[in-house]
Amino acid sequence: MNKLISDPNLDQCPDFASAEFQGSRAPLLSPTSDDTQAAATLRTIWTATNTTLRAQWQLQLDAEALEAAEQQCLCAEAETQRLAAQALQDATAAEEDQKKNRIHHIPIPDRPRPKRAAESFIVSDFALCKLDKALFVELYYWTNKGLADARLNFLTTNDDSMVPTAAADGTTSWIAASVARPAAGVIADRLLSPLDFSRAVPRFIASLEQRGWDNTCVVMLANFFGALMLHNYWTSDNVLEQRALLAYEEDQRRAWHQAIPLPSGAWNISILDDAEISRTFDSLYHGERERADREFEFKVRKSINVINSLANCLFSIMARLHLHIVRLPYLHPAF
Asked: What is the chain's mean pLDDT, rounded?
């Protein structure tokens, strides 16, 4: 079907009775049909044709309207997708910028200076970076010695150098050298004194809250430390029992941090495993016994070596004295 280029509703029926259409009426003339009847036949044919064209025109208008609506819908959908892609791109760029310049995007509340601001403490950048990545970090950084080292480095160090580091997605990024450098002389948790441990725990929990850790994890770790200090080993006079708790704390917390990103996930670390604590104590006890046995064996061997050395010296002296006595008459014939 050919496409109409004009609206047939605007067409006017010609005057087929006029002399202009004499040629059109001629084929319709017959003994039974004169000019008037021929003109009426032509008007009937034109009217029927015009009616058909009007219906075709309406169908054409409907089809064009439907096509325009579909095209508009496609354009709107494409624009929506473009805007969504642009928004995603902008959000990704903003997120990357926030990661690179985190300090620039930290919101500062409109409030007076907190009264306890003067009592705040400075923690090593290395330790805080570990916390931000949910990695294990020694409690040493929150002891008096660790905080003193961090404060000294903060006041005396002016190192703006950057070092490369591997990100979680395998890409290489640059971070401050102070963030990548652990403190010198870090003491493992198992070697901390109970006093240093009890001082570090509340500061460590405060740092977790300040770094935006989930409240569930913060409470879980706080309950974990509390359960350790309420254990009967903690107040025991046996040093090995206290060391067993500290060794258990270090091993469990290290394993807990390593399990966080795994598909199986971590667990409620605040639930103590008494059987594991007993195994840790037994391991320390046997290790201490082996060390004491080695020291005793070393002392015994050293004593035996000294005794053997003295005996050899004594035998040598006696042999020389005997030889001297034997030779004495020959050296002094007068006697």
From this structure: 83
Which sign, positive or negative, has the C-alpha torsion 240, 225, 122, 153?
positive
Q: How high is the pLDDT of residue 155?
A: 57
Nearest residue to 221 (alpha-carbon basis) of 204, 233, 235:
204
CA angle 12, 15, 17 (to 5 degrees): 160
* Pairing mode, strands 162-166 and 172-176: antiparallel
> Which residues are within 8 A (CB) of 274 and not within 5 positions of it... i.e. 6 or more apart?
none
Q: In 3-state terms, what secondary structure has residue 175?
A: strand
pTM value is 0.53
Q: Which residues of 130-161 are buried (b: 16+ CB within 10 A; e: fewer)?
A: bbeebebbbbbbbbeebbebbeebeeeeeeee
Q: Are 203 and 138 in contact (CB under 8 A)?
A: no
Give the residue from 132, 143, 99 showing the smallest Cα distance to 211. Answer: 132
- In terms of C-beta distances under 8 Å and separation of at least 24 residues, what long-range contacts does 7-15 make, across chains too? 7/57, 8/50, 8/53, 8/54, 8/56, 8/57, 9/54, 9/57, 11/50, 11/53, 13/43, 13/46, 13/47, 13/50, 14/46
Structure tokens belonging to residue 198: 């009890």
Tell me: the pLDDT tens digits for 68-93?
Answer: 999 999 999 999 999 999 999 999 88
Q: Collapsing DSSP states into helix, strand and coil, what is residue 162? A: strand
pLDDT score at 183: 61
* Residue 22 CB neighbour total at 10 angstroms: 14
198-232: buried (b, 16+ CB within 10 Å) or exposed (e) per residue?
ebbbebbbebbeeeebeeeebebbbebbebbeebe
* Cβ–Cβ < 8 Å for 50, 11: yes
- Say if CB 240 and CB 281 are below 8 A apart: yes
Gap between the Cα atoms of 214 and 222, Å rounded: 13
CB atoms within 10 A of CB 255: 13
Residue ranges, the chain, pLDDT below 70: 1, 113-120, 154-183, 324, 326-335
Q: Does an H or E element contain 53, and which? A: helix 35-100
User: Within a 10 A sphere around the Cβ of 251, how many other Cβ atoms?
Assistant: 14
